[in-house]
Fold this protein.
Amino acid sequence: MIPLSYFIILSIVLFVLGIIAFFIKKDLITQFLSVEIMLNAANLAFITFSKSASALDGQIIVFFVITVAAAEVAIGLAIILLIYRQKKSIKTEDIKSMKG
Amino acid sequence: MAQFLFFLLAVVCVASVFGMIISKNQAYSALFVILTFTCTAGLFALLDAPFIAVIQLIIYAGAIMVLFIFVIMMIDVRKGIAPEKKKWTLVFASGIAVILLIELIVAFKMAFSPLSTSPSQAIGNPSDLGYLLFTKYLYPFEITSILIITALVGAIILVKKKEKE
């Protein structure tokens, strides 16, 4: 039997790695990927707590999170494609028209 | 056996996130993230959630990442991403992240000290999940379908090229 706290620690580590990746990487697609990793870490925590409470509600929430993530990815990638068409680049440094 | 499986999946998971951070090519990053999602599906299966594990494999590692790979194909990545100029962002981000990591772990230890590990009956039976989804969570389920339709139409309208008049 694996202690459930191991799963929570792994989820925290994955979340923090996602944050590091978000701040280090300089292109929109990889930043978007790291947001997905953070969502995944949150899902892992939800399922662990669901197991700990012996209730199914956590798994239902994860089901909804996955569905919303699918919608979010569709819209986000469409916006990235639009930015690429306008600026011919997906680097964050090139998107600075609102920089003061 | 389960312990060995957990450590194997955890190590591969964290290592592939590191690979995603290190690799310069976005296509390789996407492939590393697929590996991460697959390992997380294995962890879900270890936690008595077989339905969510399969959903994770099919929707996340399958459909969503295929979307990512298609967009990477459309965007010209041969020019590559310029090498990091500002070194201090890396140091700054890592420092803040380590502080956050310690903070979260301490908060977890103090808030949920005894996480019950009683070998309860197997939850996560797909039929129970479906029953709950269509009784208690019926309205969120229906609203989600509206959300998906909206996202579909929105994505098509955003990307559609305007006709020149």
